[in-house]
Amino acid sequence: MKSIISLFFVLFFAVSVAYSSGYNIGDKAADFKLKNIDGKFVSFSNYPDAKGFVLVFTCNGCPYAQAYQDRIVEIDKKYKSKGYPVIAINPNDPALAPADSFDKMVSVAKTEGFTFPYLIDEKQEVYKNYGATKTPHVYVLQKKGSDFVVQYIGAIDDSYQDATKVNSPFLASALDALVAGSLPETTTTKAIGCGIKDKSKK
Q: How far apart are CA 93 and CA 180, in angstroms?
């Protein structure tokens, strides 16, 4: 009986680690190749002049993600010219979240005027590699040689409900530091949003 209980806890721990694994600050992030809303595939190699990236795991249907759509567009407009373009990735399984289907991604991107790629993580592998748990969940990468190093993980700011009440623009502050040649003072914050819909975790 004790051996069965021990085995249960070992398996539980292994599954928990598998689901909670992901990148930490200073880790090198792996490239990916995911389908964009225009049907073309996008990876880091599409941006040979980029100094880094703002990866945002987001979706269509989550109220938190919806609240940040305009702000993500503004981040892209401001920092793309400085070498840090936004790449948005939808990690949700549309079978569990019908609002997050590929067709609706295309519609939302057009309606909201997305200025950045909006990719679908169809195999739900990329978000797990990064360790994203919410929509939205942000990862800022900085190019160092041929590598992309994680320099910020977490929330966009501290007021998802009202952009006019933001006191701590976490993402913008991290990007300003990197653009200026420094490292972010705040490197990790708690991502606030909806849980990612993954059929393997039902």
A: 38
For 19, other C-beta atoms within 10 Å of its C-beta total 14
The first and second tokens of residue 130, run together, are 């990064």
- Please check whether residue 120 is in contact with residue 34, taking contact to mean a CB–CB distance below 8 angstroms: yes
Q: Where are the alpha helices (DSSP H) in the chain?
A: 2-20, 63-79, 102-112, 126-130, 170-179
pLDDT (tens digit, 9 = 90+) per residue, 44-65? 999 999 999 999 999 999 999 9
Nearest to 135 by CA among 54, 197, 199, 85: 197
Domain 24-201: state its class: alpha beta
Distance CA 151, CA 1 (A): 46
Q: Whose structure tokens read 């910020």? A: 152
Number of neighbours of residue 32 by Cβ within 10 angstroms: 19
Record the tokens describing residue 62, joined without a space: 């989550």
Sign, CA dihedral 157-134-108-129, equals positive
Its pTM stands at: 0.89
Distance between the two ends of the chain, CA-based, in angstroms?
A: 27
- Distance CA(116)–CA(76), nearest Å, equals 7
